[in-house]
Design goal:
The complex is a heterodimer. By secondary structure, chain A is of the alpha/beta class. In chain A, about 35% of the residues lie in helices and about 25% in strands. A 6-stranded mixed sheet of chain A has the order 6-7-8-3-9-10, with helices on both faces. A 4-stranded antiparallel sheet of chain A has the order 2-1-4-5, covered by helices on one side. Classes of the chains: A alpha/beta, B alpha/beta.
């Protein structure tokens, strides 16, 4: 038996949600099928929502639209009340994003310089930047390598630097695309604890991952995405017991809903 | 708003320059190679000349009554004269490279056949020198004959031409050297210098997946492009300066190391400033074009391939500018060639529609950056991986 519910679009007047999408569709030029089809979801403030799905299911396209780096072909998306197309620049300030396995750091800069660069581009005042950097260095335990060039970093050090960079402007929502891919257990735990901390601070978090155990541990809700659409959602610890998400995902994938 | 925009441009430019200056490959290609290229080339050229066959070349002589010519040839201090048995031996020796040239005298020494290998540069040069010397020798013999017969030697030169050059030979050579070298060098240096930086900051960023996080910040994408353009242009200025510094070092070292001729440069300050301005604009044009190409390319490798036509166009414009004399006014509207012609005119103290050409340069930069801005605003820039 499948525990959870087939996905239903959120009601029109969701006021407390930090992230809302309605009928989101994304069709890339030259691609035969849309990457996203009529996706509607909401994420409340202080809620952690996981996206689970096969490669090419549409998770990354959804996260990129919410981060304001891609435009939807149809539908709307708002983050903290800001439209991701009309108010893209403001959305960038409201979102902290981490994309893909590659963290996109500048290898010839130190961790501190990477964070400084993004703080400056995200409008943190010159006077405030050093304090924010110290805050991030402490938060992610980067004291030992903050002044070293990124080119010599391990995957875990890079990921911590990338998270610090995404958080330095104190975004209201976090978008994490497979943040623990390629990390060892210790580094992955740092990321997971960071996500839980964000929830405590009232930030909304959307996280995609192939690691069902990780999603069970950190997510309030997990949404299963297939062929560009949301097909199922469940609440770990409420709808399903610990360890059941993997089996649920496989059954949903096989049976379809 | 404008202040925030300017801060973004400055922030991006400063970060890009920091990264570029920390990359030893960029420094080698943009600074060290241009700085050392000309001194190395000049050293090699002079080394080749010193050991070249035109100095102390061996010349074979054969045939009848050649004894009187030998002291004359040897007095030129460039040839060692070796007698050989016959024409065939001389011809074979020249063909084998044993002799730079050979002289076969006949008809009692009144006719001479100059045997040389016209498919070999050193043999052809030796033949030209010997030919000129023998003509001089022949004239001297004729003058002696006229004097022996009581006739005036001026009979040989019924029209005497006197030269009245406006400039000394050193100054004339200096001006010619500037008009020949500066346009080509400026266009080539301006095209070559930004390549590494432009490739790194456009296609290189795509490959390293750093563009997406960058475009996820509050920074305006046009501000990002302007910041990158600023950094690439600075590298181009440095490269062009390094090329000219290297050329100047090679020139200054020439007389000291190789007894090379001194040239005299009479470039006035206004002309010099105009040349520097035009060179700067040329560097900015190539920086903008190459950054746009790099951002449009799918990969750094694809960008490198696309830079090649730019280099070819720069070379063609440079050579076109130096080979064109009295270029018509409408050439001021021909891209790149107009920059070469304006630079050529400015180094010779003249002007070739400098204001129009400068305006065109600004237009090229603006159009390129608008294209670059459109490229980074399209989603394709993030998907081309």
């Amino acid at each position: 038996m499948i525990s959870g519910t087939p996905h239903v679009a959120p009601p029109a007047a969701v006021v407390d949600s930090a992230v809302i999408t309605r009928g989101l569709t994304k069709q890339y030029r030259g691609m035969p099928v849309p990457a996203l089809r009529d996706v509607s979801l909401s994420v409340a403030s202080g809620e952690v929502v996981g996206l689970l799905g096969a490669n090419g299911a549409g998770k990354t396209s959804l996260l990129r639209i919410l981060a304001g780096v891609l435009r939807p072909t149809k539908g709307t998306a708002t983050v903290a009340g800001l439209d991701t197309v009309r108010d893209a620049t403001a959305v960038h300030g409201a979102v902290g994003a981490l994309f893909g396995g590659a963290t996109g750091l500048y290898e010839r800069l130190s961790a501190r310089e990477n964070i400084h660069y993004f703080a400056a581009l995200n409008g943190v005042s010159r006077a405030e930047i050093p304090r924010r950097i110290e805050e991030m260095v402490e938060l992610f335990g980067m004291q030992e390598f903050a002044d070293r060039m990124v080119s010599g970093f391990s995957s875990g050090m890079k990921q911590r630097t990338a998270l610090a960079r995404a958080m330095v402007h104190r975004p209201r929502a976090l978008i994490l695309d497979e943040p623990t891919t390629g990390l060892d257990i210790a580094a992955a735990i740092v990321v997971q604890e960071f996500v839980l901390r964000c929830r405590e601070e009232g930030r909304s978090v959307l996280i995609s991952s192939h690691n069902t155990g990780e999603l069970e541990r950190v997510c309030d809700r997990v949404i299963i995405v297939r062929s560009g659409g949301i097909v199922f959602e469940t609440r770990p610890g409420v709808d399903i017991a610990p360890g059941e998400l993997r089996e649920l995902y496989l059954r949903v994938s096989e049976e379809g809903v | 708003m404008i202040r925030a925009y300017a801060v973004q441009v400055r922030t991006v430019a400063a970060k890009e320059l920091t990264e570029l200056f920390r990359d030893w490959r960029t420094l080698v290609v943009s600074v060290a190679v241009p700085l050392l290229l000309f001194p190395l080339l000049v050293s090699l050229a002079f080394a080749a000349r010193d050991g070249g066959p035109d100095r102390d070349a061996t010349v074979a002589v054969t045939g009848q009554d050649w004894l009187s010519v030998v002291p004359f040839l040897e007095s030129l201090d460039r040839f060692t004269v070796v007698p050989v048995d016959d024409f065939g031996t001389a011809e074979t020796g020249v063909s084998n490279g044993d002799f730079a040239a050979a002289l076969h005298f006949r008809d009692d020494g009144t006719r001479v056949v100059l045997i040389h290998n016209n498919a070999d540069v050193s043999s052809a040069e030796a033949a030209a020198t010997i030919g000129a010397a023998l003509e001089q020798y022949s004239t001297r013999l004729a003058q002696q004959t006229l004097e022996e017969r009581g006739l005036a030697r001026e009979l040989l030169t019924p029209l005497l031409v006197e030269q009245f050059p406006l400039h000394g030979s050193a100054r004339a050579a200096g001006t010619v050297a500037l008009t020949l070298l500066v346009p080509i060098l400026t266009l080539l240096a301006a095209a070559i210098s930004p390549i590494t930086a432009a490739g790194d900051l456009g296609a290189g960023e795509k490959e390293r997946n750093t563009l997406e996080p960058l475009f996820g910040t509050c920074a305006n994408r046009t501000a990002v492009i302007l910041g990158k353009f600023g950094a690439v242009t600075v590298m181009a200025f440095i490269g062009v300066t390094a090329f000219f510094t290297g050329a100047a070092l090679a020139y200054l070292a020439g007389p000291i190391l190789y007894e090379a001729a001194q040239l005299e440069f009479a470039l006035q300050v206004p002309s010099l400033l105009l040349t520097v301005l035009l060179a700067g604009l040329t560097a900015a044009v190539f920086s903008a074009v190459e950054l746009t190409i790099s951002l449009s390319a799918r990969s750094a490798k694809a960008a490198q391939a696309l830079f090649l036509p730019v280099l070819i166009l720069a070379s063609a414009a440079g050579y076109g500018a130096v080979s064109l004399s009295n270029a018509p006014g409408w050439y001021a509207h021909v891209p790149l060639l107009n920059l070469g012609l304006a630079i050529k005119a400015s180094v010779s103290g003249a002007s070739f529609y400098s204001e129009v050409v400068a305006l065109w340069a600004v237009v090229y930069v603006t159009v390129s950056l608008r294209v670059a801005s459109a490229v980074v605003r399209s989603e394709g820039v993030l998907r081309q991986r």
